[in-house]
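Section 5.1 Outputs to date
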Amino acid sequence: MEYTEINTSYIDKRSSSMAIASLVLGIAGLVMSCCIYPAIIFGSLAIILALLSRGGEMTTNGYGKAGLILGIIGIICGILFLAYGLFILFVQFGGPEGYLEYIEELLEKSGYPSNYDPYDFYKSYDFNSL
């Protein structure tokens, strides 16, 4: 009986490339954690690729572990920034309606036309400056 060894180099290359992609997405998720949604998306993809890079084994290489950890940290930071933004929205402005009223007041103070008045471009333009 002849024993033939299975070539696992393709699986190892695929696993290492997934681990490196996981690391890159984990770093991107951590860097973009202040942007909330990219942090959650990149962090989730980093975790998925880190788990897939194991290739059915119970161990993960260094890049996969780093991608997994950075993905988790990126998701946590994104969720913390989201919670902080909602906290500020409700404490300082009283909710989304208060924030929109604040924006309307700023626009009125800066000279932008009201949403309720028809906007006439020629009325606000100074033709004497030509």
